[in-house]
Every structure is written in C-alpha cells, then in structure tokens.
Amino acid sequence: MFEREEELARDYFQAVDRQLPPVSEQKLDAAIHAGIGEGSRRGKNVRRRYAFTTAVILTVALLFIISWLGGPGGQRITAVPPKNWGEFEAYRSLARNNVTIKTALDAGLVTPLHISTQEKNGYKITLDGMIADRRGMLLLYTFENRSVQKAMVTGLSLKGPSNFSSTSYWTGGDGSPGITHNYAQLTLEEGQKLPERLTAEAIVIPDTPEAQLSSSNKFRTSLTTGFTVDTAEIEKFGREIDIRKTMTVGGQRIHIEKAYIGPTGIYLNAVYDDQNTKRIFSVIKPTIMSGKGEKETALTSYMTRSVNTPLQTMVFHNNNMDAKGPLKLTIKGIQALDKSDLKLVVDTEARKIIQAPDDRLTLPDRSTDIRFTESSSGVEGKAKSGQLVLQLSTKPTPNDEMTRVSFDLDDSFTDGEGVKHSIYRNEGTFWESGGNSEGWTDTGIFNLGSAKLPQPLTFTIISYPNPILEEQSVRIR
C-alpha cells in the first residue's frame, strides 16, 4: 500500500513539474515552513500517514528549489559576486566592456609588472600588468599627465633585440591631467615569437590641433621602459584548432584555415581564394558566438591583420572563463569589388576622373595645392605639394550601421609615363567625414608630393564600400 502511495505521489509531482512556473525564494520559504508546521501538528497520527506527508513535503521542497534554480540549463536568479582583482581593481570600469580583459582578470591570467618610465615633460607611463600568449600581448598601463592640458597616448609599441613586427590597438582615455588607466594590445605575425627582453615605447602628443596635425618631433614625447617575459611559459598558453572550412559569399570563397585561442583573444586565419573574381576588402560584422542557449554571448572582432598576402588574421575577444564551450563564426557578408573595377584614373591638372568604380567618387571644389609649414607638418619652407582631394558620397541604406566603410588607395601609383610614385602617408594625408539624413560623405586628402607629374595618374583601390550581404557561419569548436 505504501509503495502505491509513493508511486502516485511521484506521478503527480512529475506532472506538476511540467507545468509549474518559477517560484520566488520568499514563496519557497513560506511553503517549506508551512509544510513543516503542518507535519508537526499531525505528528501523532499513524506512521504511514506521517511518512507519506513527509515525503510530499520533501518532494515539494525539492521541486520548488529546482524551479527556483531554473532547472537543467536554466539561468540562476541569484547574483554572483564579482571576483576580487586585488591590485587590478582600478581596471574594473575599463574592463566592463572588454570581455577578454575582464575574464583574464577573473581567471588570474594577468602577470603583475610594476615597471615605470622616467617622467618626461610631465608625462609618465607605468606598466601595471601583462596578459601574453603566442600571438600577442595585452598591457594594462597607468598614464600620469602632470601637465596643465590634455595629452594623448597615440601609440604603444614593443621592440626587441631582433626585429619583429606587431600591430597595436590601444585605448588612451581622454588624456585629461591626472591619472588614467588604459590598455594596449599588440598582435604578432604568424610564426613570430616574443623575445625575452622587450622595450615598450609610448608616444604622447598634446591634445591640440597644431600638435595632432603635425609630424614634427617637437610635439612628440617618447616614454620607454624595458621588461622581461618568460617566453617558455607563454608558449604553454592557448591552443590551435584546425578548421579547414570554406564560406562562399556572392560566389567568392573564403577559406577559414585555423584558430588560435589564447588569453589575449581568438586569432582566426582566413584566406581569400586567389581564383575569386572580386577583391574582398573585408568581411561584414564578423562575430564569434560563444556558448549556447541563454548563455550564448557574442565575441566581436576589433582588428584584422593583413600582411600583403591573401592571409587575413581576424582578432576577436575571448571568454577566458569558458575554455570548452562551443564557438561559431558568423559573418553578414563582404565588402568587395570586381577586380576590373579596382583602377582609379585621375587627371589632377584637368581635375577630371577618367575611370572609377562608379559615380560616387568626385573631385570636390577645393584647392589642389597645399603649402606645408612647420606648424602643420614640420617641413618649413617646402615648395607647393600636389594634393589629390577625393570625395565619396553615399545615400543612406537600412544597413548603414553594419556596412559603412571608407575608401582608400594603395600607397603606390603610376604617372602617365608608367613611372611609380608613392603617396606621402605621414605628411598631409588625412580623411574627413560628415553626413546627415540625406547621406554621408568621406573625403580623402592625399599628398602626392611636390613634383609635376605626367598625366593622368593611375591608382589602385584597396578599400571601397560595396557590400554583398549574405550571412554565413562556420563551427570553430
């Protein structure tokens, strides 16, 4: 008889379990205490009825607890207290929107450094901590600005005894006088290794129009300090995953070769097929989806490293607290042009575009000459320098936020006689942007040098807004 009652009770609560909504903690406590009180008042009844009542109460309590926790795979209502970061607590607000840094600090992957530069011109950099792996390094640093005006850390680079190439991405804060906490990320080329002895150099420039537009060293303050890294330990971090899958967008093939997943991020190697009929400038909104269900999060890409080959390395954030969860790459499409449309031919003397991908590129009504002075470029007394001003006008579309990119030209161009020349990137070459509800414009100002060149001039386009929207995905892990 007792076994039959237990079976009926079990069947009843299994049915309730399928229908019962989540129960709050207060209701749970009330139900448990009420049940226990009821059981106490009837404690003198026969043993069989007592046993049945007790089983019911315990089953209800267990059911309510499971429901409160959200069941298998559900989301807990309880808040998890933040982990103590110790000496790195000052970086909590900075890391709030950077999952790589936040989870590396949670996982204890930050190595303290406590290394400072000498103070110079009222500026000082302190390297507080380091996150490093086989593909790069994240440096957490403090910037002290003891001057009376804003100043910007415009670059932070690493140097070693032997040459190696790194690409940097950094945040410099607003540069106000006082102390700010920032970070810099440096990525290495495929196959490169960090030397044991490194020198970090930060360039600081006053936040004034004159200093920001100038390439003169008189506005630049170089802050340097040396430190060592345990390269053998760094080599142990992270793992490589062979993917070897292909995505096709608009008939263009992108080979996803492999991924390296380490404390500093997820480094995804992609190769654009050399048989493609279009040149792919970039992929649109590359994102790695981490986890699954309600716990799925988006890991964004903030850098693409290209090395004059079909190989592109996309760098994504990484959740260092999830070493085994599923990862999936998704893209919304590509920016690409037919290879026959990459040529831009301009007669700068006649102010005429002879060949372009479309009619969105124009020569605005601006001076074609510019005289550089010490205040603008540090080249006092230089003769008039040819300046090509190109304007790209685009009408608004529903996907502007996702697909908007600027245009750019290759550094090398040829004159009317086929002689090669170079654009002066570091002096008088810059971009301006503007827009409203009717559209937006990007204006590129290119310094072509002071020589009078045979016309027309032929350039190669290396970036251009021409989206091909077609969502694709590839499983990474």
TrEMBL record:
The keyword Membrane applies. The chain crosses the membrane at residues 50-70. Keywords: Membrane, Transmembrane, Transmembrane helix. This is DUF4179 domain-containing protein. The lineage of its organism: Bacteria, Bacillati, Bacillota, Bacilli, Bacillales.
